[in-house]
Amino acid sequence: MPAQQLPHPPPPGPPARQQPVPAPESQSESAASYDPAAPADLSTGRYSDALTAPNPDARVGVSALSLRYQVAAALAVAVVAVGALVHLGMVFLHVAPSNTVTKQHGKAIDEWIYPEFEQNWKLFAPNPLQQNIEVQVRADVRSADGSTRTTGWYDLSAEDGAAIDGNLLPSHTEQNELRRAWDFLTATHDNANRPIGLRGTLAETYLRRIVVLRLGRDDAAGKGGVVQRVQIRSRTTNVPPPEWSDEQVSTTPQYRLLPWWPVPADEAAGGVR
User: Fold this and answer.
1) CA distance 254 to 187
2) Using an 8 Å Cβ cutoff, are 255 and 233 in contact?
3) Based on the number of CB atoms within 10 Å of its own CB, is 175 exposed (0-12), middle (13-18) or buried (19 or more)?
């Protein structure tokens, strides 16, 4: 039986052309171009980043406001700047030596400065302040049951000192309000504690309101009580000289006692704030 001839395999065709494989994008590039909120580009299958690009024409800050609010902001800044300049000018004229402006407009300057913004040079040589002055107050109180009593002396200066001690940012009120009110009163009263002119009356009212508020803070009248009168005194002690000095200074306290002042009903009821 003749051998069966196997069919020959077909001749090999031309080699298949390999399609170029695009290089993968780097991870940072893909992450940078991906934005889930951006619309998809269906032709490329990639997201458009047109909405995520910064807009060079976008306005920020005051320029982003409407014209009306820009005008209001400009006016507010102008008012604050003018007020600050006027205040600085008044303080400068108050502490400056007597001149033509202060002679002609001294009353207006004093009304602006006193009593809250009064200035002095006692901190500096050649005559710095060398005394410790403590302001103390006591009150006649009508209790809730109708009886009256007189409180002990409250050392208001010591309370301010305790609030300032160890405080990195003490308030202006704790540092200067009571001290300057007392200086204002002594400068406008004679040795018999009688007011000199209209500023003397203003000094009394200012100091009285301060001490009534402090007594209310300390609950001096008690529950249901009312402060009817207050009496204020100062306790002045000279600062002892240093050990190397031959100066002889008395350290015995000196007191200045003011008369009793009646407290108006609106102040006694807590109407002053």
Assistant:
1) 18
2) yes
3) middle
